[in-house]
Amino acid sequence: MAQLEIRNVTRRFGDLLALDDVCLKIETGEFFTLLGPSGCGKTTLLRMIAGFDAPDSGQILLDGKDLADTPPEKRPVHTVFQSYALFPHMTVAENITFALRMGHFTQSEISARLHASIEQMRLTGKTCKYPHELSGGEKQRVALARSLIKRPGLLLLDESLAALDARLREEVQVELINLQSELGITFVFVTHAQTEALALSHRIAVMNQGRLEQVDEPSKLYGFPRNRFVAGFVGHINQLGAQVLESTPGRLRLSVPGMGDIVAPAQASSLTGQAGIFSIRPEQVRIGIHDELAGLKNHFSGKIQSVLYQGDVSVYRTKLADGVIIEALLPNSAPGRARLFEIDDTVKIGWRHDAGIFFHD
Amino acid sequence: MHDRHPWLWAAAMAAYAFLYLPLAIVVAYSFNDSRLNVEWTGFTWHWYQVLLHDKNMLVAAGNSLLIALVSCLISTVLGTMAAIAIHRHDFKLLNFMVMTPVAMPEILLGVSLLLFYIQVLHLTLGMLSVVLAHVVFSTGFVAIAVRAALAALDERIFDAARDLGASPWQSFRHVTCPLILPAMIAGALMAFTLSIDDFVITFFTAGVGVQTLPLHIYSMIKTTVTPEVNAVSTLLMLLTLALIFTAARLAPDTLKGKY
Amino acid sequence: MTERCREKYLVAGPPFLFLLLMLAVPCVITLIASMSYPGEFGGLAPFISKDTHALHGLTLETYLFFFSDFIYTEIFIKSILMAAGTTLICLMMAYPVALLIARSPKKRRNMLVLLVILPFASNFLIRIYAWMIILGPQSALSRLVNGILHMFGQAPVHLLFSSAAVLTALVYVHLPFMVLPLYTNLEKHDPALLDAAQDLGANAWQRFCQVTFPLSLPGVFAGSALVFIPVLGVFAIPEILGGTGDMMIGNLIKEQFLVARDWPFGATLSVMLTTILLLIAWLTSKAGAIHA
Description:
heterotrimer, A: Rossmann fold, 2 domains, 20 strands, B: mainly alpha
């Protein structure tokens, strides 16, 4: 039995369909992420699990029990809020022990748990400080400690890293992963940042306009997106209009305007004559100057149009003869060199026959 | 700074002088050794001593303090409840009802309460009718102060409190209440000030049953003007000044309601 | 959800019921009273009476009575003119103050605003009383004015108990109501707009007329409403500082309730005043919405 089950949950706000018949199962001990653009319904779903909103129809079950009649304060589920929502008039210690003080815990139990929590969250010496005296990272750890003090079975995290700067965010990501595996508590994490979702999660649910687009492990999601939305939302991707010329088992032959024929891996449902989009990740596209790419089934010549230097990697935008632009991503392994190719260099680009995906319309 | 023309300075300073000069004269003449508020003849504490022995004045002052205290307590409770209801439940009708006495000319509230007391309640005008009337308009000022404090808070902390297991009452007691307490106190001080200063509504709802300080000052102004009025004015000014300073310090938004 | 509902009624209930009883009901009573007959010994005649010859029930007689004598309409018109005059003078005095505060360094602004409010820590009656002293027949100002008039061979005038005294005190009492909304508006103006106007060749006066003033119109409307509405309801200022001809609507209402004891007519006057105020509030909110 799944720890948390969302059954056919639908929620409307006036004309807006915030959640459209969402079904989802989350297992005990999972680090599960709801990923999607703002307004996709992920926060609404999270608020429903916490109990701050109720579905118009459908059920939310925790350990097999319907939560419909349980108010937020009675649910064994705690939330780390986006802006942390630390109580401004309470010290760190008072914030962390809040949940215990609201329940019937003995003073000794409270101080024992506080002590352990302070230690675990590296907040020693901060207990008497007020939230406004803390750094962003410290606030984040206090918010986590506060939500974990009652040892909930399920922890909800609402865009909990969004307020941190990029450098700190990476650090906290590592801490979060360690903490989760240490505690064995199920985490349900909401974010719009795909890199964060890929780095942290065991499984990710991609949401768009109130629907679940795909639920999968990070590598599957990235490597085998089920549709154009997922392909475009998770990572960068080249998208080319295409039509199926021939569909054989294991292989598709596509006609791409401006490029001619290309070969792509088969999609079970694609039939000859269908129009759609061929997508390929920039890191799967290779670039060469001579004939080293001639062995690939798909290869074309073009000119480097622009280069985006990003430190570890560079993105090369190549313009093919007929104006089609393809992005390729190459690592900058040679130190001190900003680019492997110069603008206006004539180059060959190509990719393996089993790279890329075709999505029919 | 930008566009701070000398003319602007001059006009603004003239306006400030216009605001302060009359009051300065009232205060100065309260120490004047003459029955007439015409010329400075010498310093004296005489008028304050007269004040201390004026039985009617002391009784009126006592009544005013009692009315202000009771009406401020009731309106603080009602105003806080109203502010929470309006803020959290978006109760528009209540908002309208709370703000109406703040916005309408006092005379209209005064006469309609007079009609209500006499024609419907058959109440003998007195302390009770005045206290209830003061609560009607003070509630709005408390609500303004508390609403401003609520609006400044991160809504999510209330969700966080419930999420962490606090019942609605615990959430109010441990989170909402301590955070809006300064605004509540400021609102209470404001209500107290307004009550002790009120003339128009008291004028219509007091009848002959009760004399308050403003009513007494009114009858003195209309009949026998002596510098005793200046003396009581000066003292009253000091009291309200102290209250307003305290209120402004606790919650800067409180004053916006009145002015 | 039901718990939230219960909480709502628990919190909203007491203030709502209190105001329903002490505000809404009295307002309705006033409306009914305006359509009643006066009682034999003051107050209202009963609505239902066994004596069929006695006046009872509802009537519009008091409204007709209002228009039967032009003196009442005249007092209304004079009061509205007085309120308009007060509003205009307040606007002219308040604008420089608000502008100066808005253009002062940030730390000084609160201080300057407090200085506008502080005089009003004093009792309303004391502020009127102050003008009794200043405008009194023996006061320095009176002697100065009459001295000058004497030099030009004019007869001496009474400053106190005149329309001028009423107007002065009305402005004095209501000035902060104009300053604060104006300041709140002016403070929000982006100073870069004035830089831009200057850069494009506008002089100080042009900058004021073309940029500052049009942008401040919502503040002007808000302040005007805050001054106009209470001024239309005053009775103490004309009563203490005005002469016999300076009666305003407020005095008329007070007379009916406390002197003439014609309550139905007093209620009628209140209802008419309320109607005018609601009309004005509606117009200013419209005007404010257009310019916002």
